[in-house]
Amino acid sequence: MSEELDTLIGKLKLYLDDQKIELVRQAYLCARSAHEGQYRRSGEPYIIHPVAVAEILADLRLDHQTLMAALLHDVIEDTEVSKEELAAQFGESVADLVDGVSKLTQIEFKSKAEAQAENFRKMTLAMAKDIRVILVKLADRLHNMRTLGPLSHEKRRRIANETLEIYAPIANRLGINNVRVELEDLGFSALHPMRAKYIKKAVEKQRGGHRDVIDDIKLRLEARLAERGIPGVIIGREKHLYSIYQKMKYKHKSFHEIMDVYAFRVITDSEDSCYRILGAAHSLYKPLPGRFKDYIAMPKANGYQSLHTTLFGMHVNIEIQIRTDEMEALANNGIAAHWLYKAQSPDAAAANQLRVDHWVRGLMEMRERADDSMEFIEHVKIDLFPDEIYVFTPKGKILELPSGATPIDFAYTIHTDIGNACVACRINKSLSALSTPLQSGQTVEVITTPGARPSPAWLNFVVTGKAKSSIRHYLKQQRRSESVELGKKLLKKSLHSFGKKLADISEEQISRVIQHNQLESLEHLLQEIGLGNRMSYIAARQLVSEENALPNQQINVNHNETRPVLTINGADGLLLRFAHCCKPIPGDSIVGTMDSGNGMVIHSDRCDKVMMHPDDSHRWIHLSWAKDITDEFSVELRVELERQRGIIAELAAAVTQADGNIEKINVEEQDARHSIISLVVHVQGRKHLARVMRRIRTIRAVSSISRARH
User: Do 571 and 654 fall into the same domain?
Assistant: First the structure.
């Protein structure tokens, strides 16, 4: 038995029985045999790597199956041994774990972001099946980071960057603090060696000078706890290099500002003692307002629990974390502590597992909604870097959200359907804008309406991955159904000019046209027409022709028959836009033109752009307004008037009296006596506009009013 295995077995004897240790030993023998003759870049035998990965997981006290998978994790990919052989020798669970880890490394990460993103999608699937896959992968990555030396400069930078972007945040999300800290420091040292060296040297220099102050604070805290008879072990907390660098870079703090904070951790026996220690610390030094956080009552999403307080004493700031032994193990080992505490503390283990399941379920939801890997990883990265706030539902349930989250994010966190139907919100019982950034401790109530739907504008201010992916997914679905509907209307209209209906076209002919255009289905063709990517006239010509409308073919078009006119039902929809040049409103004669990829743009038929192409019959589609439209439309008015005090207020009052709504007022020209004012108002149609204009004309200072057309 080799030396590296002796070290591993020594660690396993601390928490596994002999039978399980023997199974791990068998896995080692299989791995050693399979990797015989293989060497790492450093020249060491390859088996050194899987044993080191298993040792990292043994320090986290993981179960024997995970350790066996760690020893065998490169066997399927790098040797002749198959998954079936592993299953026969070690059981399905171990074989599935090894297979899961192997699949994660099959795409070699290039500098191309797409490969990284696609691999992360695979990782999500693997995590959903068994979270232990990602634990083996994290340990594998940690040992690779420890042994980056022999690799090329370019490869070291790429692996370090990927570690800081993906793997360290995952370790953080799963609560495995020890692994996260080491991954971050190793990644930082590989990516920015000079910066890491400088900070490390500065920390060592400063640490020596601070020793007396640290000892003094520690003695005072110990004396106060002894005085009150509260058990507790006080340890100094070291700040790691990457966190110092991040604070300097993103919080714009100097090195001395960060290092002038003295950090301690107090480990005690119970929750009750945690709160008693907090009282003792606050009686010794003054607490800084707004710096107390109770993560015991409100645990972080990864299960982390602790009391945090910042005190001011001895002319320095003192940060103290207070927690129990169990909380300390959970803080350092996170989800890995699930297996450690399964027997000793089933409640803590179950709560920890539940949080991880909830997170992975959320990832799976985003994965299904995302159109491609890049969109998925964009959403997930937001999710991996939360700076948390805690808000309450009206029933008192606590929700954790990233900093900067809005009521829309809150609504989607509760349920996708609530987010989709959200129309307003109350924050602490007061009506507030949906874009308001939430603060910790607020109570948020979401107001929904059946039939409401997400607005594309929400994407400008939501911050959670779930909200972004849900809104985009809904808008894509809506855009798809609207484009099919619009495409159908346009195609029917074009077919009518050939004296045909869609029902007259045979299935065979439809299939031929779809095949000819290299499309998937009739729905896909309609969608392309509705989006403006294909002309309905050409599609109709192909459908009525037995030979797919070859370019030189002549087809009789019945121009005399009355053309069907498309009806516009209102201002809503993603594929109907009203032109800014002429701002048409109900009652105006209107025509539409297709804008490739964006649907239809609607103009007034008196618009300059229409007048420039009067004979282009295929370009313009005749439209009509539906009856009883209640939507509001923007219209621009040009008002010439005499300058006098209070005239803008008088104009606004006149519009309001006519039930209009002002969007924008702009003074375009003025001299000592006259002004020309541009006024954008919301009206429901021409009759309503006439009412607004009549009301403005009654103002004595107004000399003329007209509708502006650009």
Answer: no
Beta-bridge partner residues of 642? 674
Handedness of CA 297, 303, 307, 312 (dihedral sign): negative
414 in a domain, yes or no?
Answer: no
Q: Could you tell me if 188 and 262 lie in one domain? A: no
Instruction: Please identify every residue annotated as catalytic.
Output: 77-78
Task: Please state, in angstroms and rounded to a whole number, the distance separating the CA atoms of residues 476 and 456.
Answer: 10
Q: What angle do CA 61, 67, 68 make, to 5 degrees?
A: 155
What is the pLDDT, as a whole number, of residue 614?
61
Task: Tell me, yes or no, whether 600 and 505 share the same domain.
Answer: yes
Single out the residue in 136, 163, 194 at which a domain terminates: 194
Among residues 284, 286, 324, the alpha carbon closest in space to that of 305 is found at 324
Domain-embedded: residue 99: yes
Task: Give the total number of structural domains in the chain.
Answer: 4
Q: What are the tens digits of pLDDT across the range 494-539?
A: 888 788 888 888 888 888 888 888 888 888 888 888 888 888 878 8
Q: Are strands 316-324 and 307-313 parallel, antiparallel or unpaired?
A: antiparallel
Quick count: other Cβ atoms within 10 Å of Cβ 111?
11
CA-nearest of 128, 129, 182, 176 to 340 is 176
Is residue 645 over pLDDT 80?
yes
CATH code at position 679: 3.30.70.260
Question: Are both 500 and 567 inside the same structural domain?
Answer: yes
Q: What CA–CA distance (Å, rounded) separates 26 from 136?
A: 18
Rounded to 5 degrees, what are φ and ψ at 98?
A: -65, -45
Cα distance between residue 191 and residue 246, in whole Å: 13
Q: Are 454 and 478 in contact (CB under 8 A)?
A: no
Written as six digits, the tokens of 245 are 């660098």
Residue 287 has φ and ψ, to the nearest 5°, of: -75, 145
Which of 578-612 are b and which e, b meaning 16 or more Cβ less than 10 Å from the residue's Cβ? bbeebbbbbbbebbbbbeeeebbbbbbbebebbee
pTM of the model: 0.63
Instruction: Report helix, strand or coil for 488.
Output: helix
Q: How far apart are the first and last CA of the chain?
A: 87
Residue 190, token pair as written in the block: 């590989």
pLDDT, tens digit, for every residue of 244-274?
Answer: 898 888 878 888 888 777 889 999 999 999 9
